[in-house]
Amino acid sequence: SHAYPVLKEIGHRAMMFVPTDYVGGGVLPHDRIVPGEDRVLSYQQLDSMRDVFEIGSHGCSHRILTHLQPHEIESEVVESKLNLERRLGARVRAFAYPNGGFGGFNEATEEAVRRAGYQLCFTGIAGTNLPPANPLRLKRYNVEDFGLRYFKSLLDGSADLLRLKDSLLGVSVKALVNRTLGLA
């Protein structure tokens, strides 16, 4: 409701990653902890915004792939791609690892993504991608509701300091805080 009209007006495209088991209004497991209005869009809504958003897969169940058996990993990456392609009538070329920080992907998950036919795969690790970046381990920035100054820093590249939150130390501190708050 916010990004689509702005991106359309300025003629900029973006990517949106969808966990297919939740399309149509399901609440993702991590969103049950912190209440909000973060619902997954319907296929009709996704289809209506394809002029701006390229739709990519975020797996079926949004489970962390490295916690799954090989056949489950394969199912997550293949079935989600097939479901999106069938329902939207368009090729899906990109995948984003659920909880794609350190420990959320590895060689086995990367190989499953490659076998499924994805050309691009995004981690949850913040940063820019410089040659020769691995197209199946791309960094990205989440757009969060931290205000306009934060958003501008994402666009001008000055937000690279945020990569610290995805370092091994940052991940450890975040886990400690979540445990302390009873969120993990």
Describe the model.
The structure is a single chain. The protein is mainly α and 184 residues long. It is 35% helix and 9% strand. It contains 6 helices and 4 strands; from the N terminus they run H-E-H-E-H-E-H-E-H-H. The chain has helices at 3-10, 43-48, 70-88, 107-116, 148-156, 168-180; strands spanning 14-18, 53-57, 94-96, 120-122. The strands form 2 sheets. Strands 1-2 form a two-stranded parallel sheet. Strands 3-4 form a two-stranded parallel sheet. Strand 1, helix 2 and strand 2 (53-57) form a beta-alpha-beta unit. The chain starts with a helix and ends with a helix. 22% of the residues are buried.
Q: Largest sheet at a glance?
A: 2 strands, parallel
Q: What is the tally of beta strands?
A: 4
Class from secondary-structure proportions: mainly alpha
Low-pLDDT segments, ≥5 res: none
- One letter per element, helices H and strands E, the order comes to HEHEHEHEHH
Instruction: Label the overall shape.
Output: globular
* Total of DSSP H or I helical runs spanning 4+ residues: 6
Q: Indicate the proportion of strand residues.
A: 5-15%
Strands across the major sheet, in which order? 1-2
- Mean pLDDT rating: 87
Q: N-to-C terminal Cα separation, in Å? A: 31 Å
Percent of residues in helices: 25-40%
Radius of gyration: 16 Å
Q: Outline of this structure?
A:
The chain has 184 residues and is mainly alpha-helical. It has helices at residues 3-10, 43-48, 70-88, 107-116, 148-156, 168-180, and strands at 14-18, 53-57, 94-96, 120-122. The strands form 2 sheets. Strands 1-2 form a two-stranded parallel ribbon. Strands 3-4 form a two-stranded parallel sheet.
